[in-house]
Amino acid sequence: MNTQLIAKLNEILEWELSGVARYLHYSLMVTGPNRIPIVKWFRDQASEAFDHAATIGEKITALGGHPSIKVTQPPERNEHGVMAILNESLEYELEGLKMYEAVLAMTDGNIALEELIREQIRLEQEHVEEVRKMLAPASSH
User: Fold this and answer.
1) What fold characterizes domain 3-135?
2) Cα–Cα distance between 65 and 69 in angstroms, integer?
3) Cβ atoms 91, 18 nearer than 8 A
4) Which of 16, 88, 114, 137 is deepest in the core (most CB within 10 A)?
């Protein structure tokens, strides 16, 4: 068992579990006329974070490790406007992308793990791109 790899995967597990709480909180704080689609998007992100946490936890046990149950409390900046929340979300997604990229370098020939991590990187990159689009000014195209 590679203890450094397991430790890094546990960091990701904790990050994903924290994402469940983070995105649920965001969804509860959205108000205004565009609330419904934004709430749905944040709740979908919370569900996806849960799914990612389960997948990483399963991989940890498959590698002989013990999955963490630690959940880091998301920061409460008391800025609940949609743009502020999206900026926070972008910071969070970029942090996760870096974590997954660090694990990719540790896969050491384990093709299944490498493919899993590459898929997670793709998904995180798509989240970053989506949030950046949401933060961009509306286009007139």
Assistant:
1) Ferritin (1.20.1260)
2) 13
3) no
4) 16
Supply 10's token pair. 């546990």
Q: Provide the token pair at 82.
A: 């949609």
Nearest to 12 by CA among 64, 71, 63: 71
CA dist list (Å): 59 to 55, 64, 72, 120: 6, 9, 21, 13
Domain boundaries, the chain: 3-135
Q: What is the CA radius of gyration of the chain?
A: 16
**For the chain, what's the residue count?**
141
